[in-house]
Structures are given as structure tokens and as C-alpha cells.
Amino acid sequence: MILIRDSYNVQVQHRPSVVSIGNFDGVHLGHVRLLALLKDKAQALGAKATAMTFEPHPHEFFSPQNAPPKLLRWREKFEKLSDAGVDQVFSLRFNESLSQTSAEDFVRKYLVEGIGVRHVVIGDDFRFGRKRAGDVHLLRSLGEQWNFSISTVETYLIGDERVSSTRIRDMLKQDDFDTAQSLLGYPYAIHGKIAHGNKLGRTIGFPTANIILPHDNVPVWGVYAVLMHFPGSEPKPGVANVGVRPTVGGDRVLLETHLFDFSEDIYGQRVRVEFKSKIRDEQRFDSFDALKTQIAKDAAAARSWLEQF
Questions:
Q1: Most confident region among 108-122, 246-260, 287-301 by mean pLDDT
Q2: Alpha carbon of 96 to those of 101, 113, 135, 162, 177: distances in Å?
Q3: Looking at domain 2-156, which CATH architecture does it have?
Q4: pTM, to two decimals
Q5: pLDDT tens profile 265-289
Q6: C-alpha distances in angstroms, 198 versus 108, 209, 263, 291?
Q7: Which 8-state DSSP code applies to residue 111?
Q8: Which CATH architecture fits 187-307?
Q9: C-alpha distances in Å from residue 142, one per residue of 117, 139, 237, 260
Q10: pLDDT tens for residues 190-226?
Q11: Residues of the chain with CATH 2.40.30.30
């Protein structure tokens, strides 16, 4: 799959295109349904199936302190868009200039003159342009002006509930990983490369595999029973903490995973940590010994939970 970063990198081979626009956080089942239609339309028109997205998320730009946590890091989102059959991702940097672009200018500059749009596939609640002034009706009118057509996709429901990134975040916050999986279409996990830490865990009998998270805005926080997935091998059970490790004066967000009955050197490997059940919130302990005692209890609780399945 092709990645196009910003409009100045668009080349002739990237046109014409059939485009869907969104943040695609999680690339959940609602997104997959929309992207299937995108792929069909692109094949019918002999065009590139293009997912247009934004980095950072507009919420992060306007209000970083209140932005919703991301379900996927950028690399994993790109991979899942590829798995969904997209030919190319057109990623625009969301900045002050883009935020002030009118709906009409957005369509002209990025869709028509930029990616050579032939058709647009969007959700029925789609809004775009400065102050979200553009909607489906305006887009349809602009399509008549600039010779592209539109398909809308109704909100995807499971039961009577809408499938959305917001709902998935709510399920993760409620420790409902089964419902989150039913909405995502895959188990919720954090991906990353195992990095060296301060190795305090091994001094108390609980060595950890550490993934440094790029920000503290994640949808899970605390201690969990997990499965760690390695390429080409069976997943390994363990207990993980997502947080800043207040007892030892931590100042960055880590995902620390202690694997049961495991002693291999895995530094530098890319892994996937699948979250199965929450054990407790992260907390500060009065002493390192108290932390050690609690970790032993957490490990026993996680092992007991995972052995049930």
C-alpha cells in the first residue's frame, strides 16, 4: 500500500482516486464496511481506493488536553487500512492552515486538484471544512460542479447500538474487552518494540518487557491480565501495568509486561500485547516491599484468570 504524506507528494500515479475521508481510529467494523464499498467503487472506476486521514487528529490540534485516546498507533492504523484493501493512504497534516480551509476550498485543493477524485464514499453524518460547515449536501453539490459522484454509508449498528470509536473507548474504560472486540472485529491490543528499562522488576523476581508509549493518552490504564503475541509463535500469558509507576518515581508512560514462566531475551522485538481483563487501577505504594507484595498478588490473579480459558 502507498502512503502519501501531504498534497505536495501527490504524483500522477496516485490519480484518479475514489476517496473516503475520516480519522479511521481503530479501523473498526464500521470502517471496514465503508472501506469495502470504497474498494468496490474504485475497482469499478479503475481508480485508486484512497483513505484520506489527518495527523494529528483534529481534537489533538484544537484541545490536546481533552483529545480522546487513540485506539491505534499510526503504524497499526496504516497496516489495518492495508488489510481492509485500501490502495493508498493520503495523510494530511492537520494544522492552523488546514483548520481554516473552507469546505469548498478543501474539496477543490485536496480532492479535485490534489488526488483527482472520481467518487467519494462517506458516512451519512460526515462533516468537513472550517467549523465543520460542509456536509453531504454541499459535497454532492460540489461533485456536480467538479464531476465526481458520492455514495453514503449508513451508520453501522450491532444490535441497536452504533459502532463507533467513542463507544469502543467507553467499553475499554469499563473493562468490557469482549464488547470492544465485537465492535473492533479483533482483540484490543497495544503494539510496540520491547525496550530496555531500569530493570527494577528483575531484582524482585518479576522481570518485565517494556514498551515506551509515545503519550499518556491511552484508553487503558492500570494492571491487566494479558497475552503477548510474537510473530510466528503462540501467545505468552502475563500481567501488565500501563502507567507512570508512581512508587518508583516514574516520569514517562510505559507498558510493562511480566510474562509467566518465560526467560527469553526479546529486546528489540515488535510484539502485540492483548488485554484480557483488568485487575486494578495503578496506585502508589508506601514502600518497594509493598509494591513487590502487590505485584505477586496481581500476577496470581492474572494467572488464575487466564487459566480459565
A1: 108-122
A2: 9, 21, 21, 31, 37
A3: 3-Layer(aba) Sandwich (3.40)
A4: 0.91
A5: 888 899 999 999 999 998 887 777 8
A6: 52, 11, 17, 16
A7: I
A8: Beta Barrel (2.40)
A9: 12, 5, 53, 59
A10: 999 998 766 555 555 578 889 988 777 899 999 999 9
A11: 187-307
